[in-house]
Amino acid sequence: MSKERKMTLTIPREEYMSPGHLACQGCGASLAMRLALKGLGQRTIVCIPACCWAVIDGPFPHSSLDIPIYHCAFETAASSASGVRAGLDMVGDTETTVLAWAGDGGTFDIGLQALSGAAERNDDIIYTCYDNEAYMNTGIQRSSATPIGAWTTTTPVKHYKKERKKDIIGIMAAHGIPYIATASVAYPEDMVKKFKKAREIKGTRFIHVFAPCPAGWKSRPEDTVKLARLAVQSGYFPLYEIEDGERWTLNLKVKERKPIAEYLKLQGRFRHLKEDEIALIQQEVDARWARILKNCGL
Amino acid sequence: MSKKKEAKKIVFESEKEMPAVPMSLGSMLYNKTGAWRNIKPVIDLSRCIKCGICWKFCPDASIDIVDDWPQINYVYCKGCGLCAEECPQKCIAMVEEEK
Questions:
Q1: What is the helix, strand, coil percentage profile of chain B, to 5?
Q2: In chain A, what are the domains?
């Protein structure tokens, strides 16, 4: 049918992640790393604390990434990255980008003070949180990134999570760092663009990547990208940037937001929710969406 | 990039062979994750429009672009079905693996 048509690729072709890694089928986090490195390129050093990626990368002495990796302690993603940056500066290497790559547990809970410290010092690092909304690596325990209403092994169905997800972007915006962005694996062009942009900026840069987890969310592995897309289109995880803590830009203006129920029903972790509980979640999503639109001046 | 690397598992015979500091010496390519799969994607190239979406979304980097056509690397494909789900032409079928 289209034998003559040229293949047009919208993201860089170079691969810095090799197959054979230990991620589950349909893993959002491994897709996130693949896309992030396409944006950052070869001259990158990545610091990985305890998180899914500490496992996905593979056992010693093997690695599934073509760039140097530093495995560090759970709470030290940001401080290790700061240290690597300081070391590079000492030898006069200003070109290499230092990336801290932590999960939501290592960002929202355990690594928050190190991240806050690095942001306060405005160390020249990119901090990426790939958010799968629980401690998936250790067996789906609740984190402060777990959304309201979700089942986890520590918040079983009878006592599902009643607390809201922590507003990490708000916390980082309060630090006034040069660049903050949210990205989703369902929008690779947008995500690669944001990492490319972040690479050119000096100072602490924070990127929050939404990475669905089929094993922990009890969703089908083939739905990973669909879920990430629904999260954006329902307004649950809007794509926006904040520069210097002030200038907000909404990257994807969703004209008609999809109901949050559409996103929730694809996941086993929300199966116990009743109509009125879903309505409450919808209200909360609406309120957050309105707040973000206001901040973006729309 | 990854094609230059060796798909060999590194095994140390004794402690002396080990590097002084824990460092990466080889790639994970030795781990043939294709064995995890119980359904496999098959592309019907006659209907393919070369949009590259399957390649773009593969979490295992197991779809190569060979002569401008997508080609699934069955050595590593874990069979998640993301490519079949996202294909706008619906020309990727998930077929039961025979073994």
A1: 25, 20, 55
A2: 28-295 (3.40.50.970)
Inter-chain touch B24–A225, beta carbons under 8 Å = no
A12 upstream amide cis, omega within 30 of 0:
no
Q: Of the candidates A5, A18, A57, which has its C-beta nearest B29's C-beta?
A: A18
Name every chain B residue with its beta carbon within 8 A of the beta carbon of A43: none
Nearest to B68 among A7, A22, A61 (CB): A7
Could you tell me if A217 and A268 are in contact, meaning their C-beta atoms sit under 8 angstroms apart?
yes
Provide the percentage of residues in chain B whose pLDDT is more than 90: 66
Sequence-ordered strand ranges (E) for A110-244: 126-131, 179-184, 205-210, 240-243
- Cβ–Cβ of A7/B26 closer than 8 Å? no
| For testing contact with chain B, the best of A1, A6, A24, A25 (most B CBs within 10 A) | A25
Domains of chain B, each with CATH number or no CATH: 2-96 (3.30.70.20)
Can you give the pLDDT at residue B2? 42
Distance CA A38, CA A17 (A): 9
ipTM for the complex shown = 0.91
Number of A/B CB contacts below 8 angstroms equals 143
Measure B31 CA to nearest chain A CA, in Å. Answer: 5
Does the CB of B10 have a partner CB in chain A at under 8 Å?
yes
Contacts of B88 (CB under 8 A, 6+ apart): B49, B51, B53
Mind listing the pLDDT tens digit for each residue in A139-156? 999 999 999 999 999 999
Q: Which residue of A has its CA nearest to B35?
A: A20
Q: In sequence order, which ranges of A175-295 are alpha helices (DSSP H)?
A: 188-200, 214-217, 224-233, 260-264, 275-295
Count CA atoms within 13 Å of residue A33 on its CB side.
33
Q: Report the C-alpha gap between B64 and B41 in whole angstroms.
A: 13
With 80 as the cut, is the pLDDT of residue B39 above it? yes
Mutation target among B60, B68, B69 for the A interface, most CBs of A within 10 A: B60
State pTM to two decimals. Answer: 0.93
Q: Which residues of chain A have pLDDT under 50?
A: none
**Which alpha helices (DSSP H) does A207-274 contain, by range?**
214-217, 224-233, 260-264
